[in-house]
Amino acid sequence: MNAQTERLEFAGPAGRVQMLRDQPEGSPRGVAVIAHPHPLFGGTMDNKVVQTLARAFVQGGWTAVRFNFRGVGTSEGVHDEGRGEAADLQALVRELAPDGPIALAGFSFGAYVTVEALQSLAGERDVRALVLVGTAASRFRVPSLPAGIQDRTLVIHGEQDDTVPLAAVLDWARPQSLPVTVVPGGGHFFHGQLPLLKNLVARHLRALE
């Protein structure tokens, strides 16, 4: 993302995990972990939406960590349909942010994995912010959010997403009374709308300060 981006590795449940870390100016508010889209369809930590999320968190004063799921890049292991990937995310949090506030964000498959990981992390940690973009609710059984996290959650979806229909996300959000921010004309990858996406996340983070 910039010249100061650190390339790191840690030992995850399935072996080595490759990751990138960006630091804000001054003392960070905490550590934000950002999960990428589906690895079997080209998703990596270098995805443009994932990079945009990282920039928004750094701008908001957070340390931003992106990582490659098992079997992607130099991360060891094989794709596990979200189960092992959630374990990777939980392990990364415990390794890089053993204490203090955390934030979680994910895009598409990464949003599903983030909600899966949150099921245990919410009971263990101070989760200050949750950002879910293009949540893959039509492709996976995304759990409901743990109690108490809704007020700190931003769900963003493109009006014209042809990978995950908006209706599927509304069906997931409705029983939880969870608002969904709809980007008019937006597709799954928010082509031409990444600055808007970044601003929406930045505004959410400011509101939580």
Describe the secondary-structure layout:
Layout lengths: L5 E7 L2 E8 L8 E5 L12 H12 L3 E5 L15 H14 L5 E6 L1 H16 L2 E7 L19 E6 L7 H8 L7 E3 L10 H14 L2
Helix pairs in contact: 1-5, 2-3
Quick recap:
This protein has 209 residues and is an alpha/beta fold. An eight-stranded mixed sheet has the order 1-2-4-3-5-6-7-8, with helices on both faces.
Can you give a write-up of this model?
31% of the residues lie in helices and 22% in strands. The protein has 209 residues and is an alpha/beta fold. It has a single domain, classed as Alpha/Beta hydrolase fold, catalytic domain (Rossmann fold). The protein has an 8-stranded mixed sheet with strand order 1-2-4-3-5-6-7-8, with helices on both faces. The radius of gyration is 15 Å and the shape is globular. The model has no long low-confidence stretch (mean pLDDT 96).
Mean pLDDT score, rounded?
96
Any idea of the CATH class?
Alpha Beta
Alpha-beta content class: alpha/beta
CATH superfamily: Alpha/Beta hydrolase fold, catalytic domain
Distance between the termini: 25 Å
Largest sheet: 8 strands, mixed
**Strand ordering within the main sheet:** 1-2-4-3-5-6-7-8
Instruction: Tell how many strands the DSSP assignment holds.
Output: 8
Number of folding domains?
1
Q: What is the number of helical segments per DSSP (H or I, 4+ residues)? A: 5
Order of helices and strands: EEEHEHEHEEHEH
The radius of gyration is: 15 Å
